[in-house]
Amino acid sequence: MLETVILGLFIAGLISCVGLGLSIFYALFFGLALFFAYGLIKKHRFTEMLGMTFSGIKTVLTVTLVFIMIGGLTAIWRSAGTIPYIIFYASKVILPQTFILATFILCCCISMLMGTSFGTAATMGVICMMMGKAMGVSPVWIGGAVLAGGFFGDRNSPMSTSALLVSKLTDTDIFSNVRIMIKSAIVPLIITCVLYLVVGFVMKTGGSSSDTVSLFEEHFNLMWVTVIPAALIIVLSAFKVSVKITVAVSIVCGAIICIAVQGTGFLPMLKILVMGYSNPNKELGAMLNGGGIVSMLKPAAIVVLSSSYSGIFEGTGLLSGVKKYIHIIALKINPFGAYILTSIFTSMISCNQSLSIMLTHQLCDDTMETKDDKALSLENSAVIIAPLIPWCIAGAVPLAAIGAPTASILTACYLYILPIFYYITRFKKQEAELKNAKEINN
Questions:
Q1: Which phi and psi (to 5°) does residue 277 adopt?
Q2: Minimal CA–CA distance to 310: which of 342, 348, 343, 356?
Q3: What is the domain count for the chain?
């Protein structure tokens, strides 16, 4: 009973913040206070509760550092001319009608190389958003295509931390999982591509503005060396260099180009790195302004605060009573349906993908028989449903990095099509098995 009240109050706090337009940070802080108080009521010592809280935070320190680095990377790419160079030349060959599809495919490719939706959004996602604005394409659809493409690799790439987490939790081989996941993603991928292509031709666009794009040539030295920071991301990712090192190398290279090629002073470059890029030209500013370490401090704080929950949940057993209801759901619909509903719930209360994956596995583990089914069910539920929760950092951070509206969650078509398609296939398989069992009995 107490557990239900605590979770109900927390969910009410989340809904209130969303409804009133307040920062989700307040709801998360309220949740931490609630869960901390629950532990004290359950006779856990104050120092013990502090230990649980910080044990969860320790797991995301590396992720938080990457967030901060990504903020600096996006600003340096703007100032160094990396993004203007790519936009200037790519806009000459990509049609506005096919741009949403191109954005999705490009982000799928980069996310497969990098294995991170955040890194994809901060690099290719930012470029696509700037290009799309220059072409008059809707930011809502661009943001959705970037988000969907980013999580294509977050789910399928052997470099993905979420794929690695799933393989460890289910005791399966990550490369075997990747082969199964890619095979199961083919049909949803094709459907998504067709849908984005149709939307591109139906949607009204402003067309590629040559005047706007030409401003890049006026305000930047568009030399080929300016694209090196982006090329380094691709090359280093292909050689499976860690994300931290890859991003750091790209930042240093971009800073050098910023000073040597664009003529920016050292101190102004450092200011851009920290505070973000700002162009005095109104038209260019509308497309390029943003980034910087400061822009990622709020998402980083959300990561740290929400991740403190994991230690408390594990130490106090707050969610243990929920498990019996999961089994009832699995029997009434099917096991994967239980995974979907559970991942929605865990994403809502955890506000980050990693914790959602761990909680979903913990609550649904007994509903699936084989390890491969457990791994695939986690990848088709918690991994890709987390970014669809508006206050979850899995989707909020990539959208914030590219400057896309929250409504872009609704246009991330692949993230909806994949679990629906898998649910249908699982349901048909279950029906076929029941039919065969009846025929054998008869």
A1: -85, 140
A2: 356
A3: 1
